[in-house]
Amino acid sequence: MIIDKDNENPLSTELIANHLYGTSYISLETALAYCGMIPERVYTIRSMTTKRAKNFTTPLGNFEYKTVSSDYFSIGLRQEIIENRYAFLIATPTKAVCDMIVTTPNMRLQSVRAMQTYLLEDLRIDLEAIKNLDKSIVERCVEAGKKKGELKWLKKYY
């Protein structure tokens, strides 16, 4: 969130991301950091869209958009409402993890152990948070998305 210096109202970079290049939803490291699943601070607002991949550099920040199919797009989303003032679309934690797997190029996870290493060491996701992932969302992502094998290892991991 950024404070507008002219009228001191908070500006939601998440809401801006949804409108800057729509239809889109917040995901990847941005969603994982937003829900407290990873310890890192994220400086680029990363989103998913059914349009072409695109990047924007603005005075309010950097915005990056990755492409997914329309069948895959609508799985595992929620609307986040802040102080009854504004709302934006964001991936559930499970969908954000699936998006990380689906959009990371040249990633080949071929075992439960490789998935564990990816989640705990590469993404640094909290082990307790992994236990709360929603298998039904992973199953729907397997049916609709790419990297079905890797997503199946995610489902088997927890």
Describe the structure concisely for a colleague:
By secondary structure, this protein is α+β, with helices and mostly antiparallel strands. It contains 8 helices and 8 strands, in the order ββαβαβββαββααααα.
Describe this protein's structure.
This protein is 42% helix and 23% strand. The strands form 3 sheets. The protein has a 4-stranded mixed beta sheet. A two-stranded antiparallel ribbon has the order 1-2. The N terminus is likely disordered. The chain contains 8 helices and 8 strands. Helix 2 packs antiparallel against helix 4, helix 5 packs across helix 8 and helix 7 packs antiparallel against helix 8. Strand 5 and strand 6 form a beta hairpin. The radius of gyration is 16 Å and the shape is globular. It has one domain. It has 158 residues and is α+β, with helices and mostly antiparallel strands. The relative contact order is 0.16.
